[in-house]
Amino acid sequence: MYYNSSPIYLIVILAMVVSWLIQWRLKSKFSKYAQIGLQSGLSGRQIAELMLADHGITDVRVISTEGQLTDHYNPADKTVNLSEAVYEERSAAAAAVAAHECGHAVQHATAYSALQFRSAMVPALSAVSKFMPWILLAGVFMIKTTLIPLGLGIVLFSLTTLFSFVTLPVEFDASKRALAWIDKRGIVTPQEHAMAKDALWWAAMTYVVAAISSLATLLYYVSIFMGSRDRR
User: Fold this and answer.
1) How many domains does the chain have?
2) Region for 185 from its dihedrals, namely left if φ exceeds 0, alpha if ψ lies in -120 to 50, beta otherwise
3) Which of 151, 159, 170, 178 could pair with 99 as two cysteines, CB 3.0-4.6 Å apart?
């Protein structure tokens, strides 16, 4: 049986195009919502600190980091890292991002299983990512003589694909916690809540597309492997 990889290859290209479009749309949304002042007058830093305090989290620091859309929570040193704009801004976009990253801190504090699983995978993935591309490249070049390098590369790449899918519930849950808290705490008005929800939805879509793209790429390598094996 001959495995035709062309459809999967097209899916990979399509995923790349869709990813670019979503990234563009995400930046457009955040730029738009960043121009609308928050009626509560709170900055991203103040919102983050308030959310942490409300959840009884006292060992996490809120710090500013360089760049745009570089916001993240670091469980290793327990810091909520907000991009410079989000840290100082008083907008629906800043409120959404700050609360979302604190949502990860809450997950960490409450031992959210999906976050624990993802965090446990990080050391292995950090090591794998250094040599996996070279193994896959060697596997493709050596495919006529041996399938071992390509097979090993596929196994390693499957870990990155698994990681991308494990990330999805972590991100969606953090957004859910963020939106529930800013609404309950009265941080945003109903209109601002809708903007924050929209911004977080587009941010979540970047992870969805990344997961689909990773799966499509994995299937592409698998199809090459299977096709080569059947031709032997």
Assistant:
1) 1
2) alpha
3) 178
Task: Give the strand pairing for 61-65 and 72-74.
Answer: unpaired
How is residue 97 annotated by DSSP? H
Q: Can you list the alpha helix ranges (DSSP code H) found in the chain?
A: 6-34, 44-54, 84-88, 92-109, 113-141, 148-184, 190-230
Domain region containing 128: 7-230
Contact status, residue 55 vs residue 83, Cβ threshold 8 Å: no
The dihedrals phi and psi of 164, each to the nearest 5 degrees, come to -65, -35
- Residue 1, in any domain of the structure: no
The DSSP bridge partners found for residue 79 are: 61, 74
Give pLDDT tens digits for 19-55.
888 888 888 888 888 888 899 999 999 999 999 999 9
Angle between helices 6-34 and 92-109 (to 10 degrees): 120
Domain membership of residue 90 (yes or no) is yes
* Interior angle at CA 136, CA 131 and CA 141, nearest 5: 125
Question: Does residue 184 lie within any of the structural domains?
Answer: yes
Identify whether the C-beta of residue 33 lies closer than 8 Å to the C-beta of residue 195.
Answer: yes
Q: Which helix (H) or strand (E) holds 73?
A: strand 72-74
How many Cα atoms occupy the beta-carbon half-sphere of 100 within 13 Å?
Answer: 26
CA 75 from centroid of its chain's CA atoms: 15
Provide the token pair at 164. 């991308």
CA distance 55 to 109: 9
Determine, yes or no, domain membership for 2: no
pTM, entire model:
0.86
